[in-house]
Amino acid sequence: MSSNSKSTGKQSDYLILETEFNFRYRIVLSLINNKPIKITKIRNDLNEHLNPGIASYEIKFLRLIEKFTNGTFIEISHTGTQIVFKPGIIIGCKNLIFDTFIQSKDSTECKSIGYYVEPLLLLLPFTKLRENFITFKGITSKSDTAVNLNSTDESDFACDTLRFNYLPLMEKFGIMDISLTIFKRGSYPNGGGELQLHSKTPTAFTPNLQILDEIKFDKVMGIVYGNRISPSIIQRIDKELKRLLGSELKLPLDYQIMQDQWKGENSGKSPGYGVFLQITNSKQKQWSKFAITSEVTIDELNSKDQSFVIPEDLAKYATYKFLEEIDHAPIVNTSTLPFLISLLYFNKVGNLSRLLISKKQITPYFIKFLRDINLIFNNKILLKELSDFEGTDDNDSNNKDNLLLVVKGSGVLNTNRKVT
After folding, report:
1. How many Å apart are CA 244 and CA 319, to the nearest integer?
2. What three-state secondary structure class fits 200?
3. Which residues, 6 or more positions from 210, have their beta carbon under 8 angstroms from its beta carbon?
């Protein structure tokens, strides 16, 4: 990784993007489409940022990309506010151990493992190696992993969200044989968690999707997890969740809540606990891979928050946050949309995919993502009212609250397997 201020190549050879928004997706999509980019004005406003330039976790992510590829050229300016990225060949990794932990007093500098795994999942179908093994070490879940809808791409996800939400989406499109296995759970601030990513590169996959109606979800699955804490805390959260879902809210759904207690060497270096909730369709096979999820974690960052005085408070907060997410999302989470849309771009040239989304999911962050992916692939995404299509009821309140997102395939192929 170079840190020279002069960049090689002509200015016109690079797609110029400004600010740190969508940093990870810009890098990953640039690799997939083999399009060099230059990112400028990275946290250059001293009125908003005390530490201008590229952040420590973004540098660590670039180091992961260097290990995952061959021939990638990365150049960071002396001030850190500009980066030149020229993509190389996506090789993959056979036995890589990558430590994501960053020792810092600033909690925003140390990201969970999910921050690095999420964009890497998009690269797995395009690796030269037939099989990839990567072991990540660090924090498996962090309390501030909520998506920052109004600003940058600094959000990260807990490992359970990636396992039960992202991997089934990839399986839906034929990207099979991908697994995420948690060997150790680690919480903020000291981490100590360990997760293994294993994948086999598919020979072909079909990212095509036609969803014009809301999915009728009928089953709730939940995990109450904890490490280095008393088992009674998990039991109290589990009991309160079942009471809320079963008796108080009276939801006409099947639900299953599991307890996941970690002890000893596998429980990391810091105490923490949390709740993961997911709703799926268990009766219709074509919709079984889609899910709406929510996850709340308690660690050192928010353990003294008055909102979580007793374990039952976490159960209530997690449940109502989960219901709010269901209200906003007809198909998948708002946070999952960038990942899903990126997969749909890999469809055959000219093939159209249509996805129903809610108007509540149109956030400033989402709009910035659409602009970036349009520039990198030079392929526009359409957002249309449902009333523009035949066979829809104009008086249906759901139709007025939803939009249809139309994605045209770019025909991206795995050319790296042909390189000798």
Report:
1. 8
2. strand
3. 353, 354
